Amino acid sequence: MKKLNIKAMVAIGMLSSISYVLLLLNFPIPPFPQFLMIDFSDIPALIAALIFGPAAGVLVELIKNILDYFMTGSATGVPVGHIANFAAGILFVLPTYYMYSKLKNKKGMTFGLVIGTIVMAVIMSVLNYFVILPAYTFFLNFPAMSAPEMRTMIVTGILPFNIVKGLIISIVFMLIFTRMRTWVEKQAVMKSAA
C-alpha cells in the first residue's frame, strides 16, 4: 500500500462522508424485495480508488459502513448488512479500478464497470447463500430457509438486483466520469509523483 499523505487522508475522509450521505439516500426498486436498496455510495469510493489507489477505495467503503453502523445501528445488533454492503462495494470498486488502470481510456472504464458489476453480482450471490442470509436468520431468530428457498431468493431477487444496481451505478458514474476524467487523471498523476 502506498503511504497516504495528509492531503490524501483528508480527501479520503471527505469522500467517506459523501459516501455515507449517499448511503442514507437509499431507495428500493420494484419488483425486488424491500430490503434490497440501491444507493450511490460506491461512486465516491471509486473516485478515491482512481485517484489514490485501491486501498483508498477500500478505506472509503470501510469508513462509510462504520459511520452508518454507529449512526443508524443494525436490526440484527451485529453489522451483517454493513458487512454485506462493504463486501459488495469492494467487489464492485476493485475490479473496476484494475480494469481501468490497465486500459486508461473511456472504453476501459466502461469495460471495468461491466466486469465490476458481474463480479459483484456473482460473488454476492454466493456470499448471500453461504454467509449473509444464514447470518440474518440466526441473529434475527427467524426460521432457517431451506436450500431451495434460498436459491430461489438469490436467483430471482439478489442476483438480478445486484446486476441492476451495478448498471444504474455504472450509468451515473459514467455521466460523472466523462466530465471529471481529466481532473481525476491529473490528481492521480500528482499523487503518484508525490
From TrEMBL:
It is a multi-pass membrane protein. InterPro entries: ECF_trnsprt_substrate-spec, RibU. It is found in: Cell membrane. Pfam families: ECF_trnsprt. Keywords: Cell membrane, Membrane, Transmembrane, Transmembrane helix, Transport. One of its GO terms (cellular component) is plasma membrane. The chain crosses the membrane at residues 6-25, 45-63, 83-100, 112-133, 153-177. GO terms for molecular function: riboflavin transmembrane transporter activity. Probably a riboflavin-binding protein that interacts with the energy-coupling factor (ECF) ABC-transporter complex. Belongs to the prokaryotic riboflavin transporter (P-RFT) (TC 2.A.87) family. This is Riboflavin transporter.
